[in-house]
Amino acid sequence: MTEITASLVKELREKTGAGMMECKKALTEAGGDLDKAVELLRQKGLATAQKKAGRTASEGLIASYIHMNKLGVLLELNCETDFVARTEDFKTLAKDIAMHIAATNPSYVSKEDVPQDVIEKEKEIYRAQISGKKPEHIIEKILEGKVEKFFEENCLLEQIFVKDPQQKKKVKDLITETVAKLGENIVIRRFARFQLGETQK
C-alpha cells in the first residue's frame, strides 16, 4: 500500500480545497491513489452540497463584470451568512460566474426557469425537421436529446464553465464544489447582461 505522505495530502488539498483531515481520510480510503481520492472527495462534497440545498440563502453579494466598456453583467449570488459572502472563495465564484455570463449570454438560470411554452415551441421546430424520416418512438428520444441540448445552451447552470480547461465542468458543478468547500448553500438568484447598442427583447 502507498504511504500517505504529507506532500501527497498537500497536493490533494491544493487540487480540491478540502480540509487536511478529509484529504488524509480520502487518500487512505483510496489506497494512496490521488485521482481516486479526488473522486471520493467530489462524491462526498456532492452529498454535502445536496444536504445544504434546502437551506435558506438570503445573504450574498451583487457582482459585476465589465468587458471593454461595451458589455456588462450584474449577478446576484446568494449564500446563508454574511461571513461566507465576504470570503475570497465566494467573491471569486461570483466574479467567475459573471464573466461566464458575459461570454455565453444564457437566457435562464436553470431548466426550471424555462417556460413550458418555450420548450413546446422548441420541440415543434425539432419535430418539423425530422418528422417522416424516423419512427415515432425514435423521434421522441431525439426530441428529449434536443431539449437537453437546448438547456445546455440556454440555461446558466447547465452550461460548460468557460474557464474549465477540460470543458467538462458545468456551472452547477462549480457551485457544488464551492458549497462543499464553504459549507453553505449557494444560489444564483438572478442576472442581467447588457451589451452596448443592443435592443431590448
Structure description:
The protein is an alpha+beta fold and 201 residues long. The chain has three domains: 6-52, Orthogonal Bundle (Helicase, Ruva Protein, domain 3), CATH 1.10.8; 59-110 and 155-195, 2-Layer Sandwich (Tetrahydropterin Synthase, Chain A), CATH 3.30.479.20; 115-151, no CATH class. The chain is 53% helix and 13% strand. It has eight helices and three strands. It has helices at 6-16, 20-29, 34-52, 82-85, 88-104, 116-130, 136-154, 171-182; strands at 59-67, 71-79, 187-195. It has a three-stranded antiparallel sheet with strand order 1-2-3.
Short description:
It is globular, with a radius of gyration of 20 Å. A hairpin with a 3-residue loop joins strand 1 (59-67) and strand 2 (71-79). It is α+β, with helices and mostly antiparallel strands and 201 residues long.
CATH topology of the largest domain: Tetrahydropterin Synthase, Chain A
Query: Major sheet: size, sense and barrel closure?
Result: 3 strands, antiparallel
**Mean model confidence by pLDDT:** 87
Radius of gyration: 20 Å
Beta strands, count: 3
Main CATH class of the largest domain: Alpha Beta
Globally, the shape reads globular
Strand order of the largest sheet: 1-2-3
